[in-house]
Write a structure and sequence with these properties.
18 strands; 2 domains; phage-related protein like fold; M1 Pyruvate Kinase, Domain 3
């Protein structure tokens, strides 16, 4: 090579013989992970309508409550009103919550139950309005006629699809020029917009809500899906309203209480706990009192990836898009994120009106959350 007389520090913008020292790897500095979507996985089927529906059914209830403010002697009263008399039949053995006394229903007239107190040698105890009644089972008469048929009605549940879009536009010059760290500017822009749409999909699956009017959408009304938090009503536990003082920090007692309540009210099995970063640290603290190490260990481990209780094994999913004061407890087998058929995320190239190439990334998705009572949420936790 001929001697040029130039030193490297004298190179500038007008001296192209020196290559720029730029890495070929383009780092994405914004968070875009979707841990909940990854945990749920791809669905086995697609939605076939903008209003995706599913059917749910329930067994005949085996509990009710006393609804009678005019009970005479609470230890001897043999006739009292229940909230739903149609749940009972003559021959039912019943027992009030927290009581050892058995009662036998001898007649049902509307909501009024006539019973034998202290049945089967048990000792009569006080009853009160609002007390839960458990129906143990019915004793039929030998040779008796069949009982009146009873059945439940299936309920029709549904959710609307939501369209997610992002535009991509690259000038002809950018397409022709060599780029650092990538081979094709259009492909890179598509990848970036797709990451954003997936991030927004997970955020909407957790926090989204449907409009109260015209949820089907139109050319002037945007159609939005109802997220997990908006679906949950049966097992909604808020500190200050559910036996825990307002502003309580998350603890193991609270997790076990909610898991038990879900187990008591549903056939579901919670297997996923979804938290943000702050509450994940609180779950890690469950082990702080029993953490131990041998003298040869040099790695400090302070993470809980699964929680096993009497009510099942739950994996812990940490997502940035979860409200920091909340903890979700899900039966993941009953939660699916479905694309509308043929409308999973894809790129649609559009006609160019000038010296550029353009297109649009489009996806249409909905949330299917079966058996709302199989899931739960804790709200109002401390975040400091």
């Amino acid at each position: 090579m001929a001697f040029s007389g130039k030193a490297t520090y004298s190179a500038g913008v007008n001296l192209p013989e020196l290559a720029e020292d730029v890495s070929d790897v383009i780092a994405i500095v914004s968070p875009f992970e979707t841990p909940l979507l990854d945990a749920l996985g791809d669905p086995m089927r697609a939605a076939t309508s903008t209003h995706h529906e599913w059917l749910e059914d329930a067994l005949l209830p085996n509990r009710d409550a006393i609804d009678d403010a005019s009970i005479g002697d609470p230890e001897t009263e043999t006739a009292f009103n229940a909230a739903n008399g149609d749940r009972f039949r003559a021959g039912d053995q019943i027992q009030c919550d927290g009581s050892k006394e058995l009662m036998l229903v001898t007649a049902v007239a509307g909501d009024t139950l006539t019973v034998i107190r202290g049945y089967a040698g048990t000792t009569p105890e006080e009853i009160a309005t609002g007390q839960v009644i458990h129906i143990l089972g019915n004793a039929a008469l030998e040779g008796g006629d069949r009982p009146a048929a009873r059945f439940t009605s299936r309920s029709r549940c549904g959710n609307y699809t939501q369209i997610f879009t992002a535009a991509v536009e690259v000038s002809g010059t950018d397409l022709a020029a060599s780029q650092i760290g990538l081979a094709d500017e259009m492909d890179f822009q598509k990848q970036e917009r797709l990451r954003e749409l997936l991030r927004d999909l997970e955020n909407t699956v957790i926090n989204g809500g449907a409009p109260s009017a015209n949820p089907q959408g139109s050319d002037t009304v945007r159609r939005t899906m109802k997220g997990i938090l908006a679906h949950l009503a049966t097992n909604l536990f808020t500190t200050g309203d559910s036996g825990f003082p307002a502003g309580t920090a998350l603890n193991e007692e609270m997790i076990n209480y909610v898991l038990r309540k879900i187990w008591e009210s549903s056939s579901g099995s919670v297997d996923t706990i979804v938290v943000g970063g702050f509450q994940k640290r609180k779950i890690n603290d469950f082990l702080s009192a029993v953490r131990g190490y041998t003298s040869g260990e040099t790695t400090y481990r302070d993470g809980v990836s699964a929680y096993e209780s009497d009510f099942g094994l739950c994996r812990i999913v940490t997502t940035r898009w979860m409200p920091q004061d909340a903890v979700l407890l899900l039966d993941s087998s009953r939660v699916k994120v479905l694309p509308l058929s043929g409308r999973s995320f894809h790129f649609k190239r559009l006609a160019s009106g000038g010296d550029y190439e353009c297109g649009e990334l489009i996806g249409e998705y909905t949330l299917e959350l079966r058996n709302e009572a199989a899931h739960g949420v804790i709200r109002g936790l401390t975040t400091v």
